[in-house]
Amino acid sequence: MEKTWRWFGPNDTITLPMLRQIGVEGIVTSLHHIPNGEVWTLEEVNKMKDFIEQHGLRWSVVESLPVSESIKYGGHDRDELIEKYKISLANLGKAGVKTICYNFMPVLDWARTDLDYPNPDGTTNLYFNRAEFAYFDINILKRHDAKKDYDEETLRRMREEVAPRMDKEGEKRLVENIIVKTQGFVNGNISENDLNPVEKFRSLLNLYEGIDAEKLRENMTYFLNAIMPVCEEYDINMCVHPDDPPMPILGLPRIVTCDSDIQAFLDAVPNPHNGLTFCAGSLSAGAHNDIVALAKKYADRTHFVHARICNVQPNGDFKESTHLDPRLIEVVRTFENLRPELPMRVDHAPLMLGDEKKGYNAGYSFHGRMLALGMVSGIMATVNSEK
Ligand code: DNO
């Protein structure tokens, strides 16, 4: 597979010359300076593309061309926003940037409760603690009827293990981790400049009143059908990112969580340009998913691979595992054998060796990702030597 790297644009302190030195071949990026819902002009697209190419690299994947909330919940201006999306896609197509990652998660792009969970070896990782998440939902967000979405054991842990150690600082950290720090940098809804993120978050949740999984699926199909003609004209491959974590959260529906969900959106729009980002990490955060079986089953409709993997505890907590996890080796083997032309990037690596002082976006360290890329490159080389 093509070794790619998520790079956050010319302001990223991890520079393109650094990436060339560590064996990166292609860049995954977005026009982060353009607000969600606005057109990406050909001029802006070409500016980014030229900058990347001047450094001897190529712009392999757009991650993401964000889908506005209104397209997801079916707001009155969705057709207008879809028209703008189509113009951006056409401009990317004209420039030759043809793999587009997006997601269809309402409100929250991805969720973790802890961004610096200590590992025994001194590194830190992202972590999802289900009982802390319940605490955020029930005690901070105070969502109506939230309690009924959690099992007894999670509620017990919340009362007995989380609540006694929570104070104002702890609550603030939870808010930052769940709805601020993981969102702003992915062109999400909430940024570090928002003074009252919880209030803003509540009003975003309200937009989805009455939208269940079926309605959300209908809106995704509507969106995909509308953009497919542009994708055909410019040979653009759309690849939806699975929901992270792969289950409904905070009363919001989620529709890319498991085998039957993936089958459903592929069948709803049976066009090869409608495909999947195989994020092994997001899918493996649900104990219901057999990640290796999914890789084999959906390799032919996959356009982009995210190499990382999670360990789920019996209580539903999960943590990123090593990139040498045997399941990830099998996923990489599957794609390297069946789809060696696909772009692949590593994801959500630990903070290590000074990464923690650099203020990187959560999950996007330098040393941690460099080590992970080395590991995945080693797996790929081994698979190829066995061919
Ligand atoms: C998190 C990422 C997501 C992903 C988007 C794609 O680290 O996996 O932010 O890029 O959901 O739209």
Distance from N terminus to C terminus (CA atoms, Å) equals 14 Å
Average pLDDT level? 97
Low-confidence stretches: none
Which class best fits the helix and strand makeup? alpha/beta
Assign a percent range to the helix content: 40-55%
Which ligands occur here? D-mannose
Q: What form results from the Cα inertia axes?
A: globular
Largest beta-sheet details: 8 strands, parallel, barrel
In terms of quaternary structure, the protein is single chain
Q: How is the largest sheet built, in terms of strand order?
A: 1-2-3-4-7-8-9-12
Summed up, what is this model?
The chain is α/β, with parallel strands linked by helices. It is 42% helix and 15% strand.
Overview of this protein structure:
By secondary structure, the chain is of the alpha/beta class. It is 42% helix and 15% strand. The chain has 14 helices and 12 strands. The chain has helices spanning 16-21, 42-54, 69-73, 78-95, 130-140, 152-162, 168-180, 197-206, 213-234, 259-268, 280-284, 291-298, 326-338, 367-385, and strands spanning 2-6, 26-29, 58-63, 99-103, 114-118, 124-128, 237-241, 274-279, 302-307, 310-312, 318-320, 343-346. The strands form 2 sheets. It has an 8-stranded parallel β-barrel with strand order 1-2-3-4-7-8-9-12, surrounded by 4 helices. Strand 2 (26-29), helix 2 and strand 3 (58-63) form a beta-alpha-beta unit. The protein is globular. D-mannose binds at residues 63-64, 101-103, 109-110, 186, 241, 363.
